[in-house]
Amino acid sequence: MLTAVIRAAGSPKALAATFSVLIPAVADGFLGHAVVVDAIGSSDIERLADATGASYLRAGSADGWHLGGAQARGDWLILLDAGDVPLPHWTQAVERHLILAPDVPALIPLRGVAGSLRERAAVSFGGRRLRAGLVVPKGLVLAGKLGSAPRRLAIRRERAEP
């Protein structure tokens, strides 16, 4: 079962955009749970998480992935920032990856040249750190770093404006 861990920084509109693509994955049985980690403590974010059935945590952004991962019910996690919107057919791309390379973390890269360049630079300068867009085993999130560089998936994600 896949769990979404979403870091939210105060924009309910951005979180709603992310939930808009996650809810169909829940309905299809692909995504089993979501954990929203709120760095600011917004009551609007908490209400939105509650309305969607997601777990809600208040924690700083530095330890958000770890604390969210500890609350996750699934063995695999998709790490997202509020506003991240995986493009259509993302569930098929992730499912295919989990079947073909079940021990390798994956990355749903940002769409566009600027986002791609930022992510490629992140890989060059500490590519084993946790970051948005990763599909990763829960154990690696709890350990705080990847065991190997992630495999880039063919699908992309966009970032909605807050």
Automatic annotation (TrEMBL):
Q: Does Signal count among this protein's keywords?
A: yes
Keyword annotations of the record: Signal
Using the record, list the residue span of the signal peptide; answer none if the entry has no such feature. Answer: 1-16
What domain of life does the native source organism fall in?
Bacteria
CDD domains found in the cross-reference section? Glyco_tranf_GTA_type
| Annotated protein name in UniProt | Glycosyl transferase family 2
- Lineage, highest ranks first: Bacteria, Pseudomonadati, Pseudomonadota, Alphaproteobacteria, Hyphomicrobiales
